[in-house]
Design goal:
Helix content: 25-40%
Strand content: 15-25%
Distance between the termini: 36 Å
CATH class of the largest domain: Alpha Beta
Structural class: alpha+beta
Number of helices: 16
CATH architecture of the largest domain: 3-Layer(bba) Sandwich
Bound molecules: flavin-adenine dinucleotide
Number of strands: 18
Shape: elongated
Number of domains: 3
Largest sheet: 8 strands, mixed
C-alpha cells in the first residue's frame, strides 16, 4: 500500500495520526498515480456517464452500489488511491429507529420518536425535511449493513455516549467504528467494479463542474501534474465530504478557527468550491459546535488531539475546576448535560479551557485521563507542552498562559464554595476537596470539531439549490457536504452525520437520482 500523501494534502502529515498514516494512500507522482490507478488520458475520450459521483466515501459508495445495480453507468472520481473516505477515521456511531436489531432485543422504537429526539436535542435548529428523510430511512440502511456483515457491539443499541442521550436505545456501532461499516460496504463496491457496472478513477481530484445551458453536465478533474480531464455525465453527485482539514475554508465558512487536525486529509471542501461556483449557497453557519475538550499533542494550531480528561460526570465526577484564559470558571464542571458544557466551551476565548487542581486532588481523585496510567501522567507534568506544574498559583498561571489574578481569585472563591458546600456561581454539586495544597497542576484543553458545520443548500430531493430555492439541474449532494448544521443543528446529535451520509447515498442510488435504468 502506498502511504505517501498527495501534495495538496501534504500539510496533514501522515505521520501525525497513525491510522491515517496506515490507511490513506495517495501518490505524489502523476505517472505512478495513473499506472497504479489503471487509467490513462485515452480512457477518458468521449465517455459519457449516467452518474458521476465525486468522492468514494461514506455517502458516495452506497450511491455507487445502488446506482450500478439499477443498470446505470456509474463513475466514481476519488481523490485518494483508496475508497472509504472518512470511514477510515470515523467512530462510525449510527442512530436508526425500527431496526431488526432493536426488534430482536424487544426495543419499541419509531422514526417519529427519532425525529422528535433530534428536534429536542438540537433545540429545533436542524433542517427538518432533511432529518425526516434521514430518520425515516435509517433503519433500512442499518439493516442492510448488518445483512452485509456489520456486527454491532453486543450491548448495542444504547441510548447514547458522549452526546445527549436519545429517549430510546437506537445508537449502535461496530467494534472498529467506521472501519466496521467500510468492511461491510467495500466488497459490494468492488463486486460492482469487477462486473464493470461501476468504474472508479482513483487518485483523481475533481476541480470543477461542467455546465451547459445552466445545467451541470459533467466534472473536470485534475491529476497531480495539473493536467485536467473532462468527464461528461447526466447527473453529478457531490459526495466529497467536508472541509474540516482545510483550516482556511474552515475559518472562512464557519467563522471559527480549526484547532484540531483529526479529520480525513482529503476533506478539503472541494465540493463546496464546485457547488458555489455554479450557483449553490451555504447554510448552517449559525450552528457551529465544538466537541468536549481535547488534550492536544502540542500548542500548534491546528494540533493533533492526543487524549482527553474524562469530563463526563456519568463516568467520573470532577475533582478539578475548569477555567478560561481569564482564570475564571465558566460552567458547572459536573453539569450532566454534555450539550450545555460544550455550548459553554464554544463561548470561551479560543475555545480553550484549563483544568486546575492541587496535590491533594492528584493523590485522592480517581485517574481522570483516557488511556494513560498515573506514571505517564506524572511524566507529562515534566515534559508535555500542555501539562503544567508549579509551587504557586501565580507561577502556574504564568506557565500555562492563564491570567494570574483571575486564577487566584477563582480558586479562593471555589475554596470558599467548597467549604460551605454551596456553589452560588454555577451550582456545582461535586466539590470533594479545596485547591490549596502545593504543588498546583494545570492541563490545557482545546475545543475543536472533526466535522464541518456549514453545508451546501439542498432541497428535500437532495438537489443542490440556489439561494432562491431553484434546483441546479443535474447536481445533487450528500454526506458531510450538507454540514452538521443542517442535520444535527446546534448540538451534537448521536449518529446524525454518518447515518444520513450512508442513507442519503443509498436512497440516491436506489431511487432518488433520475438514472437511465
Ligand atoms: C474522527 C471522526 C469521528 C467521527 N465519528 C462520527 C460518528 O461516530 N458518528 C457520526 O455520525 N459521524 C461521525 N463523524 C462524521 C462522519 O464520519 C462524516 O461526516 C462522514 O463519514 C462523511 O461522509 P462523506 O461521504 O461526506 O465524506 P467522506 O467519507 O470523507 O468521503 C468523501 C470522499 O471524497 C473524496 N474527495 C474529497 N475531495 C475530492 C475531490 N476533489 N475529488 C474527488 N474525490 C474527493 C475523499 O477522498 C473521500 O474519499 C466522525 C468524523 C471524524 C473525522
Amino acid at each position: 500500500m502506498n502511504t505517501t500523501t498527495a501534495p495538496w494534502a501534504a500539510q496533514f502529515s501522515a505521520a501525525e495520526i497513525d491510522r491515517r498514516a496506515l490507511l490513506i494512500g495517495a501518490s505524489s507522482a502523476a505517472a505512478g498515480l495513473a499506472a497504479q490507478a489503471g487509467w490513462s488520458r485515452e480512457t477518458n475520450a468521449a465517455e459519457a456517464w449516467d452518474l458521476i459521483i465525486v468522492g468514494g466515501g461514506t455517502a458516495g459508495l452506497p450511491a455507487a452500489i445502488f446506482g450500478a445495480r439499477r443498470g446505470a453507468k456509474v463513475l466514481i472520481i476519488e481523490a485518494s488511491l483508496q475508497i472509504g473516505g472518512t470511514l477510515f477515521l470515523s467512530t462510525g456511531q449510527m442512530s436508526a429507529a425500527g431496526t431488526r436489531l432493536q426488534k430482536e432485543k424487544g426495543i419499541q422504537d419509531s422514526a417519529q420518536l427519532h425525529f422528535d429526539d433530534v428536534l429536542r436535542i438540537s433545540r429545533r435548529t436542524v433542517r427538518p425535511e432533511l432529518v425526516r428523510l434521514a430518520v425515516d430511512n435509517a433503519a433500512t440502511t442499518f439493516d442492510w449493513l448488518m445483512e452485509n456483515g456489520l456486527k454491532p457491539l453486543p450491548e448495542h443499541p444504547i441510548l447514547g455516549a458522549a452526546h445527549e442521550p436519545y429517549s430510546e436505545r437506537r445508537y449502535a456501532w461496530g467494534p472498529e467504528g467506521g472501519m466496521s461499516i467500510l468492511e461491510a460496504i467495500e466488497p459490494l463496491v468492488l463486486a460492482e467494479e469487477k462486473k464493470g457496472s461501476l468504474t472508479i478513477k482513483r487518485g483523481l481530484r475533481a476541480r470543477e463542474l461542467l455546465q451547459r445551458g445552466g445545467a451541470v453536465v459533467g466534472v473536470r478533474a485534475e491529476i497531480d501534474s495539473g493536467q485536467m480531464l473532462d468527464f461528461e455525465g447526466r447527473t453529478v453527485l457531490l459526495a466529497s465530504g467536508g472541509y474540516a482539514s482545510n483550516p482556511k475554508m474552515f475559518y472562512d465558512l464557519s467563522g471559527y478557527k480549526q484547532y484540531g487536525n483529526a479529520s480525513y486529509p482529503y476533506s478539503q471542501g472541494d465540493g463546496y468550491t464546485m457547488a458555489l461556483a455554479v450557483g449553490g449557497f451555504t447554510r448552517g453557519k449559525e450552528n457551529y459546535i465544538c466537541g468536549s475538550p481535547r488534550i492536544m499533542a502540542s500548542t500548534d494550531e491546528p494540533a493533533v488531539p492526543e487524549t482527553r480528561w474524562i469530563l463526563f460526570p456519568e463516568r467520573r465526577q470532577p475533582w478539578e475546576i475548569q477555567v478560561n484564559a481569564r482564570g475564571q470558571r465558566y460552567v458547572a464542571e459536573d453539569n450532566p448535560s454534555v450539550d450545555e458544557r460544550e455550548k459553554a466551551l464554544v463561548q470561551q476565548h479560543d475555545m480553550r479551557t484549563w483544568l486546575v487542581f492541587d496535590q491533594a486532588i492528584f493523590d485522592a481523585a480517581p485517574l481522570g485521563i483516557e488511556g494513560w496510567d498515573k506514571t505517564r501522567l506524572i511524566e507529562a507534568f515534566k515534559s508535555h507542552p500542555v501539562f503544567y506544574k508549579a509551587d504557586t498559583l501565580a507561577e502556574l498561571a504564568a506557565k500555562s498562559g492563564v491570567d494570574a489574578a483571575g486564577l487566584q481569585a477563582t480558586v479562593a472563591r471555589y475554596n470558599s464554595a467548597q467549604a460551605k458546600g454551596v456553589d452560588t456561581d454555577f451550582a456545582r454539586k461535586h466539590m470533594p476537596l479545596p485547591i490549596q495544597k502545593a504543588p498546583f497542576y494545570a492541563v490545557r484543553q482545546q475545543g475543536m470539531s472533526v466535522s464541518s458545520t456549514v453545508g451546501i443548500g439542498v432541497d428535500e430531493k437532495l438537489r443542490v439549490i440556489r439561494s432562491g430555492g431553484m434546483p441546479i439541474n443535474g447536481l445533487y449532494a450528500a454526506g458531510e457536504i450538507l454540514g452538521s448544521g443542517q442535520l444535527m443543528g446546534k448540538s451534537a446529535v448521536g449518529g446524525m452525520m454518518v447515518t444520513p451520509a450512508l442513507t442519503f447515498g443509498r436512497l440516491l442510488g436506489q431511487s432518488m437520482l433520475p438514472l437511465r435504468a
